[in-house]
Amino acid sequence: MTQPTTFRRVSAGRGMSETPYPLHTALSLAAASVPVLPLRAGKAPFGNCRACAGNACGGRPNMKTAGPCQCPGVCHAWAAATTDPAVLTSPAWTAAWRRAVTVAYHPGAAGVTVVDLDNAAAVDWARATLPATRSVETTRGEHWIYRGAMSSHNAVRPGVDIKSTMSYARYLGPGTGRMVDLPDAVRALAVKTPAPARSVASAVAVPAGGGGCPHRTPAYLERGIAMAEQRITAARSAVHTTVYGTFLAVLSTHGRCGCLTDAHVARLFTAAQSKGETARHCTDAWNNARTTLGL
Fold first, then answer.
1. pLDDT for 12-29, tens place per residue?
2. Which terminus in the chain has less CB density within 10 A, N or C?
């Protein structure tokens, strides 16, 4: 997909990509050097096999690249995307294709970035703000596809996600228009601080504590929060699970003495949102962890 004509070389259109057995579309995309994977109902990747369940296998050695997992299954979501026809037609993958509802691809590995515009207002914003490029109609909005890869980010503004490296996008047809280079205006969206992080964090309940803090120095708490931030930002797979587990660990250590503040929670939420988590998921994960611990 490094050339703007790549999608045009794919013979299958939108209708074929949404058939119950979309392997033909996948093979056409793979032949055009676009790494693909199947999606099940709900636009979600297939779950990991038993060997990879809960990321027990440790994940791929380098999750920044696309390609098949070392196991025969369609595991690790976007990281499973491949252009290898032998993998795509293997027994495990063929079984997945028969259950798939559509084809997805790994934009970053294909050398492109997808600006996912989720509603009419987001489309209007893009038309007024971004340079025109190849566009593909979606159920509620449009995908704008630019030549060039970058990091992926969710909710960079209302109704707008960026899908490139370490992400996947649905293939909904070749689209229309000429693909142009990724503009600085799109890259700039990724460096903005997520606006909801601090406000949502300050709205969630922080345990009041039940007495004196057992931690001898503030440095102990600071080190714990810093380690928690690092654990979240270092996650390369199973981000939801990592965020929840980290929140649980922080609360189990610091949740009963009253030393946590809104600022500490905001730091954890910001770290999670930098990995693509939504403000809503952060709030739910935090409250679920508190419930689990009886706080």
1. 444 333 444 689 999 999
2. C
Q: How confident is the model at residue 59 (pLDDT cuts 50, 70, 90)?
A: low
- Residues 38, 261: Cα–Cα separation, whole Å: 43
Name the 3-class secondary structure at 34: coil
Whether pLDDT at 293 is above 80:
no
Closest CA to 246 of 218, 269, 213, 262: 269
Q: From the DSSP assignment, how many helices (H) and strands (E) are in the chain?
A: 11, 9
**Buried/exposed 148-167: b ≥16 CB within 10 Å, e otherwise:** bbbbbbbbbeebbbbbbbbb
* Upper half-sphere CA count for residue 120 (Cβ side, 13 Å): 0
Alpha-carbon Rg for the chain in angstroms: 21
> Bigger pLDDT: 70 or 29?
29
| Residue 253 predicted with pLDDT over 90 | no
Distance CA 68, CA 82 (A): 6
